[in-house]
Every structure is written in structure tokens, then in C-alpha cells.
């Protein structure tokens, strides 16, 4: 059965509509009217995904998303921002705070559920066997193959896991600590500089096909996988 979704919105009517749509899709649902109430629920029982309104009383949704990304307990919980803002600049701002997707109000229940499912599928554990594609770069976990424009690339096991993580978590900026947790595991006592070493190896393997440009350094923060220059 699908997991629990936390809906954070100060409008009861919006929460009611979202709750109905999610329950129809067999998701459990928790609700909060502001960031303080949401944080109490998250701390008590972390949800599988958070639907977060941009404009909240007190701490805004954008600022709360930043807080969620800073804290170890919540840094990997996917976030979908709900907002009436339509400018591309606002969308970019939401994604840069750590949101995984962006839904503009008004939205249909069908679109909402589709977005939730898409984000959860993208954030699923890397053990899944689904083929991942980014433009002409194809990664197949079941056969442990990576193809760049139909040419097979040679990657070590760590570089393979690293690429899988990046391809299944695109566009977001990941700190070295988060990459370590995701690729090496929470209990791995490894220097964060190890990430830099394997990033260099991964880039080298991707250079021949030009896909090294996808692995981008965000100075002072970490790394991002993106097809945008």
C-alpha cells in the first residue's frame, strides 16, 4: 500500500481536496496548517512525501523547505511545492530550495496524484531494476550496463552507484554528506573527500561521450545532475 503523504497548507478547502484525491489513490494522509504543526508531525512520524504550500503563515513554505533539506532526518524526503505563482523564476527558486517538483494552483486531483506518483517513483531506492534514461544516457541496474548514445561505458561499481543516484535524483543539489549516505550508506565512516575522488572518476568515464557536463559542481554546496548548462 502507498505510504503516508503530509499536506501542509493553511487553506482547509485545499487540504480537503488534496486529502480526498490522495485517499482515492490509496495514500494515507496527514495534514498541517503551518510549518510548526508540520514539523511536529514530521518529527513524530516522517512521511514518504510532503506537499508544501509556498505561502504559509509564519515560516513560509520556501523557508521551511530549506530547513527540511538541512536536517538529517528530513533531507531525503521528497517535497512538492503547491503555489499560485506561475513565473519561471519562482519555479526555479522553489526547485533551488530543495523541492523535487512544483504544482501551480489551481490543479486537478488527477494531476496531483500523477505528480506524487512520479516523484515517489523517481525517489525510490536505487535497488530497483527500472532502466533510467537522461537524454542519450541509459543506465540499466539489472544488467549493470551504462550506454551513452548506444556505446557501452566502463564504470566501476562505486561510479555505477553514484551515477544511478544522480540519475534518479536529477536537478537537485546534493551535499557530499547526502551523497555519502545514499551511495555508501549511513553507517559508512568515509571521508567526504572520497566523494570528490569518485566524482572525478565518473566524469572521466563520461567525458568521451560528452556527458561529463551533466555532473555539475555547485561551489560551496555539492553536486547536481542536470542536462542544463
Question: What does it look like?
Answer:
With 229 residues, the protein is of the alpha/beta class. The chain has 2 domains: 4-122, Response regulator (Rossmann fold); 132-225, Orthogonal Bundle (Arc Repressor Mutant, subunit A), CATH 1.10.10. Helices cover 40% and strands 21% of the residues. The protein is built from 8 helices and 12 strands. The protein has a 5-stranded parallel sheet, with helices on both faces. Strands 6-7-8-9 form a 4-stranded antiparallel sheet, with helices on one face. It has a 3-stranded antiparallel sheet with strand order 10-12-11. β7 and β8 (145-148) form a beta hairpin. The radius of gyration is 18 Å and the shape is elongated. The termini are far apart. The model has no long low-confidence stretch (mean pLDDT 86).
Give the helices and strands, then pairings.
Blueprint: E1 4-8, H1 12-24, E2 28-32, H2 35-44, E3 49-53, H3 61-70, E4 79-83, H4 88-96, E5 101-104, H5 109-122, E6 132-134, E7 137-140, E8 145-148, E9 151-153, H6 157-168, E10 173-174, H7 176-183, H8 193-207, E11 215-218, E12 222-225
Parallel strand pairs: 1-2, 1-3, 3-4, 4-5
Antiparallel strand pairs: 6-7, 7-8, 8-9, 10-12, 11-12
Helix pairs in contact: 1-5, 6-8
Radius of gyration over all CA atoms, rounded:
18 Å
In the CATH hierarchy, what is the superfamily of the largest domain? Response regulator
Q: Please count the beta strands (DSSP E, at least 2 residues each).
A: 12
Query: Which structural class best describes the helix and strand composition?
Result: alpha/beta
